[in-house]
């Protein structure tokens, strides 16, 4: 088994407070965590203490999430988002689009957001969700390609891949370097009547469901994708477990499926790497 540099996404331990999340993720074997902006704004820990906790446990923040209508321009929460990047460090932002805009109207604002993020050394991954307004890999690539920013790419979540009906052929023409990150999780054999509800409450551990995870990882591997890997499992069942157990289950399942796919989980850096 090769060394895995795995990230524990924000929603895998979504109900744990920040110190508990950091400790549980590190003890399970993760080398990074994801945060929602609300996790950062909702803690009473000062920035220096957060950074000290991360350093103490050998963790870094891979991804930061905030769902807002970025097509309208800068959001007030951006100040906090980039403050975290400047003081604590982060690699990339994950962003979907939940408001109705023509794809062509997203190109300029996506590029502008990438430009603002670049001022802080941060990447941006646009995430397609089958229940959002950018539903497929092809649609998100249309925006990312047209914006043509060096720090702009695609967040590829396997739950969304499976439920959107994506196939490995959909990767054709997309450069490997455009895949900003891959989020590992799995799906039930049949989709539920409400995809939003299913996505937020009933995901399965990576490689433990009906999705052909090995085929997807094989396609990414064969195309030279070396993006950071995360375990993102929105699951009421996992939520009911102690944080340390939930983190261990997610890490073990992700490690197992990556090993079976012969897919390395490579190391990655954040914008403040020189200080870590």
Automatic annotation (TrEMBL):
GO MF entries: isomerase activity
Protein name (Swiss-Prot/TrEMBL): Sugar phosphate isomerase/epimerase
Lineage: Bacteria, Bacillati, Actinomycetota, Actinomycetes, Pseudonocardiales
InterPro entries named in the record: IolE/XylAMocC-like, Xyl_isomerase-like_sf, Xyl_isomerase-like_TIM-brl
Entry superkingdom: Bacteria
Keywords: Isomerase
Keyword check for Isomerase: yes
Domain Xylose isomerase-like TIM barrel: 23-249
């Amino acid at each position: 088994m090769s060394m895995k540099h795995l990230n524990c996404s924000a929603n895998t331990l979504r109900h744990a407070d920040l110190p508990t999340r950091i400790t549980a993720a590190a003890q399970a074997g993760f080398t990074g965590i994801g945060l929602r902006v609300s996790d950062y704004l909702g803690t009473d820990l000062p920035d220096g203490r957060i950074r000290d906790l991360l350093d103490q446990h050998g963790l870094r923040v891979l991804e930061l999430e905030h769902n807002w209508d970025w097509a309208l321009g800068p959001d007030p929460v951006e100040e906090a988002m980039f403050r975290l990047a400047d003081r604590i460090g982060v690699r990339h932002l994950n962003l979907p689009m939940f408001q109705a805009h023509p794809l062509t109207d997203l190109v300029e604002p996506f590029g502008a957001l990438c430009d603002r993020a670049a001022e802080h050394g941060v990447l941006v991954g646009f995430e397609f969700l089958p229940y959002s307004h950018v539903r497929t890999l092809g649609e998100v690539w249309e925006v990312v390609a047209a914006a043509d920013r060096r720090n702009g790419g695609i967040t590829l979540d396997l739950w969304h891949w499976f439920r959107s009906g994506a196939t490995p052929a959909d990767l054709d023409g997309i450069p490997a370097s455009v895949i900003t990150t891959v989020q590992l999780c799995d799906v039930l054999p049949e989709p539920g009547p409400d995809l939003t509800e299913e996505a937020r409450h009933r995901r399965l551990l990576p490689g433990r469901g009906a999705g052909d995870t090995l085929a997807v990882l094989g396609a990414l591997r064969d195309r030279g994708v070396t993006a950071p890997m995360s375990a993102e499992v929105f699951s009421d069942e996992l939520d009911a477990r102690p944080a340390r157990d939930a983190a261990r289950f997610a890490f073990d399942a992700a490690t197992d499926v990556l090993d079976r796919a012969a897919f390395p989980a490579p190391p990655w850096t954040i914008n403040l790497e020189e200080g870590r």
